[in-house]
Design goal:
The chain has helices spanning 2-25, 29-44, 48-51, 57-65, 71-98, 121-142, 148-151, 155-170, 180-192, 198-202, 205-238. The chain is mostly helical. It has one domain: Glycerol uptake facilitator protein (Up-down Bundle), CATH 1.20.1080.10. Helix 1 (2-25) runs antiparallel to helix 2, helix 1 packs parallel to helix 5 (71-98) and helix 1 (2-25) packs across helix 9.
Length: 239
């Protein structure tokens, strides 16, 4: 478990430091979306064999519901993710501060992006639930034992591309969270370095909504795979 804790901590640190850093510094939605996707690909093929590369409490919650994690393991994973994300945000924003770079809520999530009204709180909740559900749903399927024959070594690439996809949709709406640890990290970093207080006030949305989306994905995956399993058994009986 210590190795898994360290792996999850490192993975979430890289996600926040590299992906959020790229999102802040790039001027394009595509560039920011690709940064998040590429980090997932890199981490999946490096720490995936150690911890499964969750680096996201919503993913860990789905695995808990699917009984692929114990309650103890779940809290260890989430603790590592929160810690890794926080260290990544503190270092990233600290570098920005030392370089005297000025931002408004850099890399943070919110239902108002900068000065542009990107939708109300209800819209933000719906966006985060739906996008997280899509993301986690894909993860559960490509890492499922029955799907490994199809996805195989491409699972990490598929998951990374899916994260890129949901970011392309969500960046203009909420900044795309789909990850409570990432949202909490940047909100705290923004607060510590006086980049803005709105993210910490709104962060509860980007903690609860992704967790709800992850739970929904687990329920949908269970329903679909259970049905397919029963159908397969019926076919075997008939044969």
């Amino acid at each position: 478990m210590l190795k898994k804790f360290i792996a999850e901590c490192i993975g979430t640190f890289v996600l926040v430091f590299c992906a959020c850093g790229a999102a802040i510094l790039t001027d394009t939605t595509v560039g920011a979306a690709l940064a998040f996707g590429l980090v997932i690909v890199a981490m999946a093929y490096s720490i995936g064999r150690i911890s499964g590369c969750h680096i996201n409490p919503a993913v860990s919650l789905a695995f808990l519901i699917k009984k692929k994690l114990t309650v103890k393991e779940f809290f260890i994973y989430v603790g590592a993710q929160v810690l890794g994300g926080f260290v990544g945000a503190v270092l990233l924003f600290g570098i920005f501060k030392m370089a005297d770079m000025s931002f408004v809520n850099p890399g943070c999530n919110g239902y108002v992006n900068g000065q542009e009204d990107a939708g109300g709180i209800i819209a933000a909740i719906l966006v985060e639930i739906v996008l997280t559900c899509i993301f986690v749903f894909v993860i559960l399927h490509v890492t499922d034992e029955k799907s490994e024959k199809v996805s195989g070594k491409l699972a990490g690439l598929i998951i990374g591309l899916t994260l890129t996809l949901v970011h392309l949709v969500g960046i203009g709406l909420t900044g795309t969270s789909v990850n409570p640890a990432r949202s909490l990290a940047t909100a705290l970093g923004s607060l510590i370095y006086d980049f803005g207080t709105d993210p910490i006030k709104q962060v509860w949305v980007f903690i609860l909504a992704p967790l709800a989306g992850g739970a929904l994905a687990a329920v949908l995956h269970t329903f679909l795979t259970k049905d397919s399993g029963e159908e397969a058994k019926e076919e075997d009986i008939e044969q």
